[in-house]
Design brief:
- The structure is a single chain.
- This protein is of the alpha+beta class.
- The protein has a single domain, classed as 3-Layer(bab) Sandwich (minor pseudopilin epsh fold).
- It is built from one helix and eight strands; from the N terminus they run αββββββββ.
- The chain has a four-stranded antiparallel beta sheet, with helices on one face. The chain has a four-stranded antiparallel beta sheet with strand order 4-6-7-8, with helices on one face.
- β7 and β8 form a beta hairpin.
Length: 140
């Protein structure tokens, strides 16, 4: 009696593995896109909170803000993103787009803002919204 695998058994095994790999690749790509959107929301809300904390603590005796421009999220010192003097930045994945309110500035000591509105973060055919109220509270 000979032991081993037949050619048909090997072909069926390879075909089955190929089908499973194809399906899992699609699920993995979807997971990466969803994860990128969630990370972008966390980064932007984190940047807003950091800027508000800096403003309320009077760091550098200045207003602070957070903005989105050219695929990056910025935390800056100053009255507006256009006149910022100090910036920290975080990259946004290329498949994620942000729209709506692009610059939120917090006043020194109070941490309040006049830049209220929403920021829409789109990725993987879904859109999530961050809302900023006049107290500077961001909610998603």
């Amino acid at each position: 009696m000979r032991r081993g695998y037949t050619l048909v058994e090997l072909l069926l095994t390879v075909a089955l593995i190929s089908i499973l790999a194809g399906i899992s690749t699609a699920f993995y790509a979807r997971f990466i896109n969803q994860n990128g959107q969630a990370n972008t929301i966390d980064r932007f809300v984190g940047g807003l909170r950091k800027a508000q904390t800096y403003a309320m603590s009077g760091k550098a005796n200045s207003n602070w803000g957070a903005a989105y421009s050219a695929g990056k999220i910025y935390v800056y010192r100053g009255n507006s993103f256009g006149t910022a003097t100090f910036m920290e930045n975080l990259d946004v994945p290329g498949n994620i787009t942000l729209s709506g309110l692009s610059d939120v500035n917090f006043t020194r000591i109070t941490g309040a803002t006049t830049n209220t509105g929403t920021i829409s973060i789109t990725g993987n055919n879904t859109t999530k919204t961050i809302t900023i109220n006049s107290l500077g509270v961001a909610s998603d």
